[in-house]
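A.,

Following up on our hallway conversation. Structure tokens first:
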């Protein structure tokens, strides 16, 4: 059995696409996933399976749509990939304050053109600082801007099949 993390995009945000985590856990267990654990209500699931990532992605997407009645993009990473992201420590040079947010964005594909990786918003509140494989790391400074358009920048740059998590969430997932 291998351990995986599934990141569901766009659920339980602003009252849209509601999926109770306890029900999601039961649905995934019913479809054969083992040791299913959910983290927060934003669609983070850790589980074990012998299936390939490709098979798992199809299974999870299908199970969610069948059970909840709407499609949800799902990005998967193996536990080894999550551990590698932690080992990279991409934010080691960032001075963190209570108004600093560290983000990890998971992409569906490896970036072909890495020339657009580094980005700084016009007001300097949002910065894309680096990437690794199918992952982009960014920093948001809330002391500069309270209404950042960071996620729209990510979607414009990398498409809609991406999902972003706070660094602290990734650290929690890595410990499971």
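Then the amino acids I'd put at each of the 176 positions:
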């Amino acid at each position: 059995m291998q351990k995986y993390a599934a990141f569901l995009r766009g659920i339980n945000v602003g009252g849209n696409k509601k999926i109770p985590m306890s029900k999601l856990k039961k649905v995934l267990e019913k479809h054969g996933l083992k040791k299913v654990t959910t983290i927060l209500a934003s669609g983070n699931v850790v589980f074990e399976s012998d299936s390939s990532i490709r098979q798992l992605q199809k299974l999870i997407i299908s199970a969610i749509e069948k059970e909840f009645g709407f499609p949800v993009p799902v990005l998967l990473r193996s536990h080894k990939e999550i551990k590698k992201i932690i080992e990279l420590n991409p934010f080691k040079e960032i001075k963190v304050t209570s108004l600093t947010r560290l983000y990890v964005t998971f992409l569906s594909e490896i970036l072909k053109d890495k020339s657009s990786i580094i980005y700084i918003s016009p007001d300097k509140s949002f910065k894309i600082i680096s990437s690794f494989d199918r992952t982009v790391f960014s920093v948001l400074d809330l002391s500069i801007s309270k209404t950042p358009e960071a996620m729209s920048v990510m979607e414009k740059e990398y498409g809609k099949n991406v999902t972003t998590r706070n660094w602290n969430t990734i650290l929690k997932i890595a410990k499971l």
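The chain has two domains: 2-80, 87-175. Curious whether your intuition agrees with the design.

B.
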